[in-house]
Amino acid sequence: MDLVLNYADSSVLTPYVYPATWPEEDPFRQLITLFIVTNLGGLVIYFLFDTLSYYFIFDHSLKKHPQFLENQVAREIKYSMKSLPLISVPTVAIFFAEVRGYSRLYDNIEDSPYGWFGVIFSMLSFLFFTDMCIYWIHRFLHHKLVYKHLHKPHHTWKVPTPFASHAFHPLDGFLQSVPYHIYPFLFPLHKVTYLGLYIFVNIWTVSIHDGNYRVPGALKEIINGAAHHTDHHLYFDYNYGQYFTLWDKIGGSFKNPSAFEGTGPHDCVKKLKESESSNMGNGCGHEKVQNGDSLKNK
């Protein structure tokens, strides 16, 4: 994050905002700047990628699904806007520790123990490490003593849109981001690589809420995509993973997406339209899971 901080200082803050007598290395100044930069960056990522996804990828026919809420998009955005500034508070504290040199982030490829191989390997290990950690954190957030206090708001959206990607309780949102932050304190990571990965994971979070359930055939058994995550929203205690299906299969929580079996949300909407024209039932009985209750307990 010090790359962003240095750029903000040299391009805008030092010449135009802060007094020249206030040193750029001052801890209080760094905290203020990190808070501003983190929130502005979060808003840009949220509105840019969520909006693009909503208008160009999200299938708007899903808004006719029986469990799509009234004014849901506006509610998702409103909840996200309330949560993001609060999520940023502990996040800024971790970024501050990075800036002050307590992490294992490095500037130059030559500083990597294994050169370019180390950079590439760190990208893969970052994904596998964070996927493993998020799986267990996410599963913990579904524990009956925790769920109603922290994670339940995110399950308000049974058929989410991209704007639900950051609609978390603030503590829930931060806890699920912790693996991204602790990785560079445990393992060497190039600063530009880390910045790129941080942006990537935010975009990925948007993508698993985008309602586009198509996955290349060879990756269906590996990638935890929007089809898997939508079933997590619908059925509550399946598919906790972030990128991969590995830990769900290890933990016994994997569910083959209903969208792959012809019983997903799109199929429900299609059957609903057909039933309206033939005065039959809506054909979506398998999705009557309300208020985050487990299908296993029904």
Characterize the structure shown.
By secondary structure, this protein is mostly helical. The protein has one domain (2-297). Helix content is 57%, strand content 1%. The chain is built from 10 helices and 2 strands; from the N terminus they run αααβαααβαααα. It has helices at residues 2-17, 27-56, 72-99, 115-141, 147-150, 170-186, 191-207, 226-235, 246-251, 265-278; strands at residues 105-106, 189-190. Strands 1-2 form a two-stranded parallel sheet. α4 packs antiparallel against α6. The protein starts with a helix and ends in a 20-residue tail after the last helix. Mean pLDDT is 90; it is low at 286-298. This is Lathosterol oxidase.
Structural class: mainly alpha
Describe the largest sheet. Answer: 2 strands, parallel
The percentage helix is 55-70%
Rg from C-alpha positions?
A: 21 Å
Parts with pLDDT < 50 across at least 5 consecutive residues = 286-298
In percent, how much strand structure appears in the residues?
Answer: under 5%
**Total number of distinct structural domains:** 1
Mean pLDDT, as a whole number?
Answer: 90
How large is the count of helical segments?
10
Protein name: Lathosterol oxidase
Organism: Sphaerodactylus townsendi
